[in-house]
Structures are given as C-alpha cells and as structure tokens.
Amino acid sequence: MTTKEIIFEKALILFSENGYTATSIRNICAEVGIKESSFYNHYKSKDQLLDAIFDSFNKAILSQAVSDEQLDIMTTQFTLNGMLSNGLKQYIRIWENPTAAQMWFVVSMEQYRNSKAGQIIIDESNRRISRSAYTFELFQKKGKMKQGDPLTLANLYTFSIRSLHLDYGLKKLYNQDYEQSYKSMQAVCDLFCNQWEL
Q: How many domains does the chain have?
C-alpha cells in the first residue's frame, strides 16, 4: 500500500469510530506513523481527505447499479419475492466489508454537517426508489404483481427496508443481535410480497 492509501485507510477508521470533527490530522499521522508535514504531500487538508472518502463511497454505490436491460431479464427470471429476497442479501453485504461499512458510517454521520455527504445520501435514496419503482412497474407489466402506483410502492418498501438496514449495521457494529434486524427485513419483504405478488 502507498502512504496515501494508508492515510486514507487509517483516517477512515478514525472518522468512523470518533467522527470527522473529533479526529485531527495529528491523530491520523500518529496512526500512520508519519509526521504531519508528510500528510500534506498526499492531501491538502483533512477536508480533501474526507472528500476522497465520499468519492470512493459514491463510486462503490454507482458500481452496483443495475441497468434497465438487467432489470428486465431479472423480472422475467424471478418472482417478486425471489428478487426482493435476493436484494436483501446483497444489501446487507456492505456490513460484511469493514471498509464499506466504515465509509457508510462516515457518510451517514456527515450527512447533517457536510452538504456533499448529504447529497450522496439523497442521491442514493432517489436512485434506490427510482430503481425499485421501475422494477415494480416491470413486474406489473409482466402480470407478476398487482397493479398499484410503482413510486408509492417503492417508497413504502424502500424506506422500510432502509431503516432496518441501518439498524442491522448499528447492531452489528455494537455487537448486538443484528440477525433479528435481518429477520425483520425478510418479514417486511414477505409481507409486501404477500400483499402485492401475483
């Protein structure tokens, strides 16, 4: 790993554990084992380092995007319950990857202080809702889902799952019973599908 990558990694850990504001460049340099002056050879400021974390997080999210063509194939191959259940398994994988989980915590904590983090969260919410609405629209067109407003259904399902997803991550972080949160997500999925799947 390069020094810049090590700075990124150590800062990410510190920011996720202590918060951005409570972490100084001195703290980061102590973890890396470099002088503060060396930090500035890689990042102009702590803000630039935070921006790099945001950019990395955003790229990771966008790399998981599913195309319209892929959704069309998936909604043909899977039932509504099968697709949503599979989506749940993929959604919680973020918590299995320490770096991804740390980035999620940093962006989540900073969304109320930093407009870039806030916009990432807003964009991600909008993307998930838009993709869910399109998925429900495809299922309805294929006669595999009852008719209803796809956008309303997407909001209902997505925000229910998202709150439980965050609950899962927090409980996993603090060594609490996070499996119950996953069971609750699956129960919401099953209830939704029992109501809407044909």
A: 2
